[in-house]
Amino acid sequence: MRIGILGTxxxxxxxxxxxxxxxxxxxxxxxxxxxxxxxxxxxxxxxHGSLAEAARYGEAVLxxxxxxxxxxxxxxxxxxxxxxTVLDCTVPMAPGAGGPALTTTGGTDSVAxxxxxxxPDARIAKVFGICHESIWTLPGPAFEGAPLAVPFCTDSPLxxxxxxxxxxxxxxxxxxxxxxxxxxxxxxxxVFAVGIWWSGAEARHAFPAPALAPxxxxxxx
Length: 221
Known about the structure:
This protein is of the alpha/beta class. It is globular, with a radius of gyration of 18 Å. The chain starts with a strand and ends in a 23-residue tail after the last helix.
């Protein structure tokens, strides 16, 4: 698969490297040519170029820029993004009095929904934002005997198929979570998890699998 990356930061390099290791072709795009070249070299990408060149490069386009500028960038590149699956990994987060805070309003408002409005002919998928970038540098991580589950939201069946194929190629398990009206839940979950990590705790400890009551079976609701 050919994947263009918009952005030159840590997430761009980590995901780009994971995709290169999975056998995909990656082109990193940025406004700063030197930064794009460094990020591409670190990921082992096929090359680097401008944001517009990365947007036009392949079937999928990763948006790995700060959340507050992602919708405007989608609007700027809307003609190039038309007909492509756009992977939104942004997390709308800012420091708050009690820890990291969500910068969207919640509900159905999300960066992904704003990007969909800005680039209506693109197929937007909210994905890859839950995990810290360091997780994507691991070779096919498994936790407690199971491959890493990667949740995603999209309104497009074509995007869902491509995202599932991409996640599977990385040795992870795709986890469909509904349409873009649920993307805000993924963004809020990411902010919640970051707050837990910053406190020195483990987010996974808050979500154990439900235990069956005595006499209950897996078939019961």
